[in-house]
Write a structure and sequence with these properties.
Layout: E1 2-5, H1 12-21, E2 26-29, H2 40-45, E3 53-55, E4 61-63, H3 65-75, H4 86-111, H5 124-144, H6 157-171, H7 180-190, H8 193-202
Parallel strand pairs: 1-2
Antiparallel strand pairs: 1-3, 3-4
Length: 207
């Protein structure tokens, strides 16, 4: 397998998960800041030109963070990365759908406002609102998380996904320490050998 990622992007979540599985894979860096996602070679792999992308051994391609993490968890059941009971599994999807559809989109309106604006519209009001909204979302997550363990009890794909968004808070000038329960969870994730390896490969410091 090959996992295409850009350092510090949402691809960090499946990067942590694939390391948790112990699967044999090749990490392939696609640096968004250098425009490497716009090359013809990468466009042939993912026409949307976004990461993450998981290329399977038979050549099939999976995109989207949620889908990739669920595939990895389901194809490596011994790693116990997603609940198997119906309610626990629904809770995992509940978290990940909300993170993708609400938290990630709020971040995008701050860093990629041009995606959401018409020609000639000022970006500053949207960015100011997004920054305020992101802080509120971080506090919401902080209030939902347990003081010990992980989001669903044991470590799961949800915790890998959550790790991304606290790291992004710092990029919006929000202090991660403002969300102490959330910060503590992310540090527990980062203490796991799999997350440490993913961070090392992406050349990212822990929070």
């Amino acid at each position: 397998m090959r996992l295409y990622y850009s350092p510090g992007s949402c691809a960090l979540a499946p990067h942590i998960v694939i390391e948790e599985t112990g699967a044999d894979y090749e990490p392939v860096r696609i640096t968004l800041a250098k425009g490497e996602h716009m090359t013809d070679a990468f466009g042939a792999i993912n026409p949307r030109r976004r990461v993450p992308v998981l290329e399977l051994d038979d050549g099939q391609v999976l995109t989207e963070t949620h889908a990739i993490m669920c595939y990895l968890a389901d194809s490596h059941p011994d790693a116990k990365l997603i609940p198997t009971d119906p309610l626990g599994r629904a809770r995992a999807h509940e978290w990940m759908n909300w993170l993708a559809s609400t938290v990630h989109v709020t971040f995008a309106t701050f860093f990629r406002p041009e995606r959401f604006l018409g020609e000639g519209q000022a970006k500053e009001p949207m960015q100011a609102a997004a920054r305020q909204r992101y802080d509120a979302l971080m506090h919401e997550i902080d209030g939902r998380l347990p003081g010990e363990g992980f989001a669903l009890g044991g470590f799961s794909v949800v915790d890998a996904h959550l790790t991304v968004f606290l790291r992004w808070a710092a990029r919006m000038d929000h202090d991660p320490a403002s969300y102490p329960t959330y910060q503590a969870l992310v540090r527990r994730v980062q203490d796991r050998p799999a997350a440490a390896r993913a961070l090392e490969i992406e050349e990212l410091p822990p929070l």
